[in-house]
Design brief:
This protein is of the alpha/beta class. The protein has helices spanning 13-30, 46-53, 106-116, and strands at residues 7-11, 37-42, 61-68, 81-84, 94-102, 122-130, 143-147, 153-154, 170-173. Bound molecules: inosinic acid and magnesium ion. Magnesium ion binds next to loops.
């Protein structure tokens, strides 16, 4: 067995639930009467997406994109590519991107640029967490869950080397982990 790095809870499952409720209420207000395509950025956003969509009361479609930027470590490589792209035509559609965390902003800026070139009628961003202290390119977040400190987070979809995605709380991976 490899040793288990320590993690401590930053946002509990109950705080996450209350925040997802709040975000869903904002989206239900703003997307009433529309039929957007929600774009889940794999892998980290899968749990947030699943919890969010079941609270939404407007008609919607779901797509998944997969980007790579990180490798197995804790730092963004800045080299991003689309590994799995959209299946549906998006020209003239309302798009809402669902992200787990905005860190340097490089990943989401790349994706938003990629989507904008396909001429959607609107392009929104909903992010569960934002780590503004590490931003390298400006990002406008339309719907934000939590602002987080400059610490490496795991759980609720977020991983460290593919581990910890299944933790129900958002946790800080302690130094040495
Ligand atoms: P960015 O390109 O630096 O904004 O990185 C965005 C991506 O890096 C996120 O979608 C995550 O997959 C990953 N990431 C950034 N910070 C963390 C963290 O604290 N924990 C886990 N993954 C992170
Ligand atoms: Mg991600």
């Amino acid at each position: 067995m490899d040793s288990q790095p320590e993690s401590r809870i930053l946002f509990s499952r109950h705080e996450i639930e209350a925040t997802v409720d709040r975000l869903a209420a904002e989206l239900n207000r703003d997307y009433h009467g529309k039929r957007p395509i929600l774009i889940c950025v794999l892998k980290g956003s899968f749990m947030f997406m699943a919890d969010l969509v079941r609270r939404l009361d407007f008609p919607l479609e779901i797509e998944f994109v997969r980007l790579t930027s990180y490798g197995g470590g804790k730092e963004s490589s800045g080299r991003i590519k689309v590994v799995h792209s959209l299946q549906a035509p998006i020209k003239g559609r309302d798009l809402l991107v669902i992200e787990d965390i905005i860190d340097t902003g490089l990943t989401i800026s790349f994706l938003l640029g990629y989507l904008r070139r396909k001429k959607p009628s609107s392009l929104g961003l909903c992010a569960l967490t934002d780590k503004p202290s590490r931003r390298r390119v400006p990002v406008n977040i339309d719907y934000l869950g939590f602002t987080v400190p400059d610490r490496f987070l795991v759980g609720y979809g977020l991983d460290w080397g593919e581990r910890y995605r299944n933790l129900p709380d958002i946790c800080v991976l302690e130094e040495g982990g």
